[in-house]
Amino acid sequence: MESERFDKDPSHRGFYPQFFRGLGSGARGLALFVKSGELRGVVRRAVGQTLNTQIAVLAAASAVFLILRRNDEHSWKRFLVMAWKWSRILSSGMIFLMEKKYHSMGAVFDAAVHEKSPGLAAVLEQTPRVHVAGERRRKLYRFFRILGFRCAILIMSWLPGLKMVAQPALKFAMTFPILGAKVAAGFAALVIATEWMEDSVLDEVFIEITEAVIDAYDFGKDSLRYYIHRLPSLATRDYFLNRYQGYITGMGFCYSLLMQIPILGVPFALIGECGAAELLVELLERNRLKTHGRVELLGEELVDTRKHD
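The structure assignment produced for this chain is given below.
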């Protein structure tokens, strides 16, 4: 049964059940992509639009790095490590550019919604999007937040005495707005343990998980923006984002984590729109079954209702 509180932030007991259901929606989005030839074609065309740019950036970066490290016999190994660590930044930049020029994310979302519910897709197509002020600024903030975190980690690696204390503190500060204080504190404790073990591979794993957590909610919200921007009022948008915050964060974390994989960051970001379509249909079904404090959402009458636990 739903709590009377509608803001499912990390301090709310309903947040983590929602979070794990959101992860499930993300997994179903992957399955939807795999079984739909049309969706695979849309994603393939979208990736092709920026493939040459990605190759050019990687080639230029490798050339500069290898020239600077030409006397280092381990230069290739160091370059591959660097490429792994910074691939998320490159992928985020590519996504920002491809969405600005080609609107690729919207194309995948529309195709995925049509695959799940043609009636809902038709309603969304007929409903104009509401302009949201500061959207471009918010996207840039997302990019520079991850870039700033990665740069801070790099600086700390140059100061071993500072790293032992500062890195866990930074990860706690960056993750507790998303995970809540208790879970973030537990995560920071694991980070401290890896610092004592001095395991560079495990340390990098925790850094990448932290990046995925930092961007989880915003990733999920951005994946759903083609629906959210069609809601009729600010109050309705706030209701949707607050009541289903855990779901949105869980789905966003699923694909934010997959984006950490080098070279595949852009494809997984696009496939994230399939997860968003899966999540949207589930949330509309759930919302239709609500009784307390319910706000009607656009298109909820067009999806099949089913009993939820």
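Interim note for the steering committee: The chain has a mean pLDDT of 87. The radius of gyration is 20 Å.
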